[in-house]
Structure prediction request, 202 residues.
Amino acid sequence: MGQEMLTSTLVLNKMRKLVSLPQIPGSLLFVDAMNCKSLGILDCSFSNPRIDLNFRNCFKLNQEARNLIIQASTRGDVVLPGGEVPAYFAFRSSRSSLHVKLNEKSLRKSTQFRACILLVNGAKFCDLFSLECRVTSKQNARTACITKEHFPGQIFSEHLYIFNVEAEEVTSTELYFVFDLSLMMQPGPINICIKECGILQL
Prediction:
């Protein structure tokens, strides 16, 4: 297939004629399929919940493939094309922040969430993208956590960025999530924004 394959990484970058991806080793920690513009079908599974998946600019992915990418990794970072935050994320907002009301029985000392943001309105940048998620308890305005994620590589409009957020010592059933982004080493104003965001409690 012409790909470079290491023990933990599969690089398919710019394989423009690749239309489907067969079964891959379950030990993989990273799949990079950026700019595989003909890729539409995934005849595989991602058995490692910590796998990082990069499907930037793969707009021909069918819905089944998109669902697999979104739901397969519960610990790793994921990037893929998308026009809206999927319904898979139980709490969704058309802004860069949202209010989440949890079931009291689900409160734990450490509560894990899967976060998703939709970026729009920007041309592509060859730079490092830094994303911050701040979680605040509505009950006492206490900051439960500040999560910072870095997504290297080109940034494209109409893409979903998915990552983990862990809130410590959550005692309130109502939390407020605020997302903010910056482009490191990018002069001038940021030409990209967060259109939607979503949260799923794990």
